[in-house]
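Supplementary Note 3. Input sequence used for the single-chain structure prediction.
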Amino acid sequence: MDSYDFDVLKLLFLGVLVNTWMMSGASASDSFNLEPTVTWQRRLCNESRLRWEVEVCGEDFKRDMAHIDPQQWCNLTYFMSEYYVFTVCTETKSQSVNCYWPNPLVESYIILIHKHFFSNCTIEKEMWVDPPDDTLTILILIPVFLTLAMIALVVWCSKRSDLLA
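The predicted structure, written as discrete structure tokens, is reproduced below.
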């Protein structure tokens, strides 16, 4: 037996020893537990308290909006900070009563707030009009002629490369 075969045999023996040593501490009967472990339990959402807390946030928002001229209610720059405070309030109150945010209850209250304050903020829709026929014809023909010109250029270059080769 030469030294290479002996080294391979030693590595194999060492591998078996290491495997045995590692598996001895990993016995299934010792460390495996079939019972599920719960590190934390999710508390249930208290929706009745959330409804009351969100209404408190809404009353604060209504009080803040009373200081703003109703003519400016459609301009976000006038009430952006008040709306931000309202949003943060609803989020923190939702989390304090173990509810996720946004949730349907909070969303419905926010919709009520929007209907109360911002129902008259619709923007007049613009009526789109077709361009004049001359402009439309030019806008259609330019890409068509560019495509034809590019095809002609490719064909011409491919014929020239045959002549130059």
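Residues 41 and 98 are 11 Å apart (CA to CA). The longest helix spans residues 133-164.
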